[in-house]
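Before going further, learn to read the protein records used in this course. Taken together, the tokens spell out the fold as the letters spell out the chain. A record is reproduced here so that you can trace the correspondence yourselves:

***
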Amino acid sequence: MPTKVAELMNNMGEQIFLNIPTEIELRESGDLKNEVFGDIKIGTFKDKSVIYDVDHKENDYGLKQLTIWISSDSSAFSMDRYLADQPNLKLFRRDGNNVVGYNVGYDGREDRAVVQSYFCLKYYKVETSHIFIYGDVSRSQMKNAPNLEEMNKILNFNYNISQNISVKVNN
């Protein structure tokens, strides 16, 4: 995808530059809305954060759409440790700090394992900032979906956009 440079700010007013697809805009929202990343979300990273939503002219999937989360918290983050602490996360793909997979749970009514959500997560550490680029589509969000077509659109959108966002390296 063709990209452009987006200038974002962390909570201390420090600039962060990302290469993002030209077809999207980023909007600060302050709303940490996705379900999968519990330990990140409710841990120490949440207090010193700025949240950016992805706006796309033709696609608005609301709570299921990709989010960029920037935190200046001094805590360390390790993708290896995060994945090891989440035994129900199963990966389709991993490339360093870029993972795509699903979260498995148990449905007691149907007495079987079920996919609770599909997710993509990219992580960067830039100077004092942690940058999380993530999206998840959960089973609870899709209960009223007539079929899998909508879920597949959302998953493909989140994946394609996330794969085309990266930190701009200064020369």
